[in-house]
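Dear colleagues,

I hope this message finds you well. In preparation for our joint manuscript, I am sending the Calcineurin-like phosphoesterase domain-containing protein (Methanoculleus chikugoensis) sequence together with its predicted structure, so that both groups work from identical material. I would be grateful if you could confirm receipt.
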Amino acid sequence: MPQTRILAFSDLAWGTREKGSAGGRVGIGSFLRPIEETDPAIVIFAGDGAYDRCSRSRLDETELFLGLLREIAAGGRHCVVVEGNNDDTMGTYGRVRDAAKEKPHIHEISGKAETVQGIRFLGVPTGKERRMARSAEGPVDIVVAHAPLADRIWLFDLPAACILTGHYGMMIARIAGKAYVALDCSPASYAVIDWEEGWRRIGYAAGSCRIELHPAEEGAATGCDPNELRDLTEGRGALSYRDEVEVLQRAKREVATLGREEVSRRLLGLGIKKTHIERYLGKRRARPSTPAARSRNGVR
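The corresponding structure tokens are as follows:
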């Protein structure tokens, strides 16, 4: 299969002030420019394209998004779209699904797998991470999600080479044998993936910071200050996000022998957030009260 270039956005910041532009605001042209510069065959929107907290537009943002999708499709490029947590806030996301039915180059893949240009995508909308990880039917190439940080761990259980998610917590790294790309508030952040029987190169942009990732090499960065680079490649937790994922996956296997309470205690001691532990391992079950305990508490 020849090399295919993919460009990815998420959480479209309609109407915000465009960086590097004298008073300009983010509109359709703000996305068409990087598309023209990178010349992708596929453009991914990893959630919150039709409406997002990043936006400041007073216009119909769903119509702006549809206009962008139609412009991209008219140029012969494919659009791969997943629904985000804010997309249907105004009850308008159905128009995106309708456009996907009408235009063969627009693929709304929320909750399903679809092959586009020989690449197998799986769309994981917000809140479906656990269910889809547990019911995965076969390997895919790229998972496209819009996952909260606490639920993102489930994406690493999916049989895929690359995880691409929107929502927040921008980052690029190799984690658990997968390429992991998290975007937010595009077009200020975007990623370019060169794919040929797997990912060969990922170029990541976050403002003026540029990071390149290759399968067998250390990443290279330009224009990033040290703190920003650490956040974008390691995360902001007490552990690096790579370590957190690997520790949580190992802990899941250890629950059967050590017990949930002991495993959770160890994870908390490492600085992993309680919500992240509970979303993956489940909440600790309350012990059934004894008659003596009920009597002490005045319960009959």
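For the figure legend, we might mention the following. Residues 241-281 form one domain. DSSP finds nine helices and 14 strands in the chain.

With kind regards,
E.M.
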